[in-house]
Amino acid sequence: MIRHPAPKPVLRALIAPLLLAIAACAPLPQTAEVTRRAPGDISLPEMHVFSARSSAPTRRSNASIAQQFLSLAFDLESGRHLPVLSRFEGPVTLRLTGTPLSAVSQRDLDQLLARLRSEAHIPITRVAANQPANITVEVLKRASLQRAVPQAACFVAPRVTNWAQFRASRRSAALDWTTITQREKMAIFLPGDVSPQEIRDCLHEEIAQALGPVNDLYHLSDSIFNDDDFHAVLTGFDMTILRAFYSPSLRSGMSRQQVAARIPAILSRINPGGRTGGFVSANTTPRAWGDAIQDALGPRGSPATRLSAAQGAVAMARSRGWEDNRLGFALYALGRLALASDSNLALASFSEAETIFRANPTTALHAAHVAVQGAAYALSAGRPKDAIAIADRNTTVALRAENASLLATFLMLKAQALDNLERPGEADIVRLDSLGWARYGFRSDAEIRSRLREIAALTPAGRPKTERTTQ
Fold first, then answer.
1. 281 close to 67: Cβ distance less than 8 angstroms
2. Do 348 and 413 sit in the same domain of this protein?
3. Distances (CA, A) of 415 to 121, 161, 297, 360, 428
4. Helical H runs in 339-423?
5. 418: domain CATH number?
6. What is the mean pLDDT of the chain?
7. Are 276 and 61 in contact (CB under 8 A)?
8. In the chain, what is the straight-line distance between the N-terminal and C-terminal CA atoms, in Å?
9. Are 150 and 261 within one domain?
10. What is the pLDDT of residues 421-446, one digit of tens each?
11. C-alpha–C-alpha distance, residues 330 and 423, integer Å
């Protein structure tokens, strides 16, 4: 299905404009040097990459997972319902075509396939580009992809094997998920001229949806199958869903009722830790709330219109009594949009969102996304020790979530705070580490240097900075 650029790319690129807006709230120095050389002259180190690892097991009860499984497998984001379960039957093959991916991204793909085999027990293997395959991953230029599908950062389409077939079939019933009984051919289209992190994020979500669920649910705080897109790599919950999807007890063509009758026993077998714990029913998320979030964080609309949409999403969440990640996300969106016009509203929204996210262990990553704004504000307010404390509380969370852009930004903020405390030796070490992660998380070296300049600009006027050299 189509992966919309709002809010995912908004989250990915959110920090830079927020840092600039926070900086605008404080008096800036006449000069903003980070080193004796300009940030544009800094020599960047080798890229850091994430090691292969398995996800932590889900903490959900099987009763709860069963409910989510049915919604993910049989409902569409549009509100339509799928009449039967569809999946690949037998071993699954995948090939990579189009613009060649970097060695780093190919490594990420191979690690993902290995995880699907070991954690979800799906027999999926990669074959050569010139061989037939069940799943084709075609790499395009970002501009070409978005000219054809402006609302997509990357997406999966059924019954086609290449971009030309997709273009020819766009207005036909071939791409209608409700007509599929068994999956045989899927194509994934993603951009190759973006950061390694963005490519990896697309690989995780789109391959998972080519194999299994085609729905996203805003109330899932511990899943990649959520349009808030805080999670970028498959979680323990996601692997449990995919493993159940490919259980021998299920088959393509089963009705919702048939699957509902079998899924409890399947989950009991594959997830024994979830046998205890009660049924927790999540409130249904109305389409109007999702539309308000899309309007707030999407690429269209005036600032006032988008701010109003965010306020509407917050009001709707409060009226329904939500105190979960959906209210937190609406507040996060409101904070982002209010910074340019009402810094008090923005900071209050961020603070409440972080409080909500901190209350639940499954939303620690969500809290970290909010906390980066707090670290930036502390730096701009002349409180470098607070900025360091916030960064230290959240770097492990960002590392565990494999979010290099978030991790790099926390480390850049910490390095600047150390500079402001006249601890240049420590700042050098931290900044060098941040740049390695930034090479993975940001699209270009120019973007990395721009981020360094933005963070340097957060230092309040009148606060001297230690001159030093970064190698």
1. yes
2. yes
3. 43, 47, 30, 29, 7
4. 343-358, 364-380, 384-400, 404-420
5. 1.25.40.10
6. 88
7. yes
8. 45
9. yes
10. 999 999 999 999 999 999 999 999 99
11. 38
